[in-house]
Amino acid sequence: MANELNNVGIGTKLIHAGAEPDPLTGAIMTPIYQTSTFKQASPGVTKGFDYSRAGNPTRQALEASLAAIENGKYGLAFSSGVAATDAVIKLLSPGDEVIAATDMYGGTYRLFAQLFEKFGIHFHYVDMKDPANIQTKVNANTKLIWTETPTNPLINITDIEAVAAIAKKAGALLCVDNTFASPYLQNPLNWGADIVVHSATKYLGGHSDVVLGAVIVNDKDLYERLYFIQKSSGAVPGPQDCFLVLRGIKTLHVRMDRHGENGAKIAHALRNNPKVAVVHWCGFEDHPGYQIAKKQMRNFGGMLSFELKNDSIQEVNRVVTSTKIITLAESLGGVESLINHPASMTHASIPREERIKNGLNDGLIRLSVGIEDAADLIADLTQAIG
Ligand SMILES: *Cc1c(COP(=O)(O)O)cnc(C)c1O
């Protein structure tokens, strides 16, 4: 199915890729195959499935959809975004080195620094706004470059094409965490990345009702190694969760267009608010990554962060607990707007000195702009900031 859809627009792909009507009943939606095992006609003779950790029809439909919408050949679904990241790092061996971005999801940092480091995999962290910084850490052991763009929560932009060229020269793989952009706004494989990772919990699911992760690649050997890890480590999503993400994907383009429109309106409103010191959003023409974002993204998205002029912890706490429509919660990418204090919530696992050094101040507030009416969101923020 993914192959037949190569010459259609992204909206058509999002709705149809991987989702053939059920051959048995004609059901338009992929059924939730809530089964752990499958009848065999004789030992080893199956209809393509033998056990749901190794493969399940609902998951297979989702994996085909994920591959198609990222312009990749192969998709793999995992039980969470961090499980997808975990699978990618398990491609490596003790002694291998990874160059990762300083500014990335806190849980990725925790997995690298507190779990994989003790298995002998070494991580270097560099500011990837300038790809030249990566080169300084390249050596014969460099096997993987890991980046995220736009970054969480500072909305920095990495030039995927430039980093891919460095990775190629170093003989290392490039993995891009594409969660913040989603496959509708950005396709890293098109710019030379080898691996794309998603927390499908966010925009792909889109409704804050499921935790799921994804990996997409083009190379068959890489896919087979990742499939072996998926099957052997077993961090697979259940069929119902796969169904929810399949359903979410069908409206990704419509939602992302509105997230982007609302993001722009709110970013400008915050910038014009006299009590706001700085707004981080990659759609501002004076954002350092604006030209690159324009090159590699379809629109600038609905993720932004800002700092108040009065950034005392009391004032920040007052603002994030004063919104009435926007909810104080971790996560992002759902239809509803969420507000978050990274230093004490999503990024609390990063040591404070590290955080501050990388520009993630105690007063930073992150917004996942939803698809409500922009005027209501602006009014809500304005009254909360006061
Ligand atoms: C949430 C998130 C993850 C982790 O995904 P889970 O589904 O929560 O495990 C990874 N990367 C980014 C950028 C995220 O926002």
Automatic annotation (TrEMBL):
Known EC number(s)?
Answer: 2.5.1.48
Recorded GO MF terms: cystathionine gamma-lyase activity; cystathionine gamma-synthase activity; pyridoxal phosphate binding
Question: Which Gene Ontology BP terms does the record give?
Answer: transsulfuration
State the InterPro entries in the record. Answer: Cys/Met-Metab_PyrdxlP-dep_enz, Cys_met_metab_PP, PyrdxlP-dep_Trfase, PyrdxlP-dep_Trfase_major, PyrdxlP-dep_Trfase_small
Question: Per the record, a Pfam family?
Answer: Cys_Met_Meta_PP
Positions carrying N6-(pyridoxal phosphate)lysine: K202
| Keywords assigned by UniProt, alphabetized | Pyridoxal phosphate, Transferase
**Obligatory cofactor(s):** pyridoxal 5'-phosphate
**Which cellular component, as a GO term, is one annotated location?**
cytoplasm
Q: Which PROSITE patterns match?
A: CYS_MET_METAB_PP
| Family label | Belongs to the trans-sulfuration enzymes family.
Return the PANTHER family for the record: TRANS-SULFURATION ENZYME FAMILY MEMBER (PTHR11808)
The name on file for this protein is Cystathionine gamma-synthase
Which organism's genome codes for this protein? Arachidicoccus ginsenosidivorans
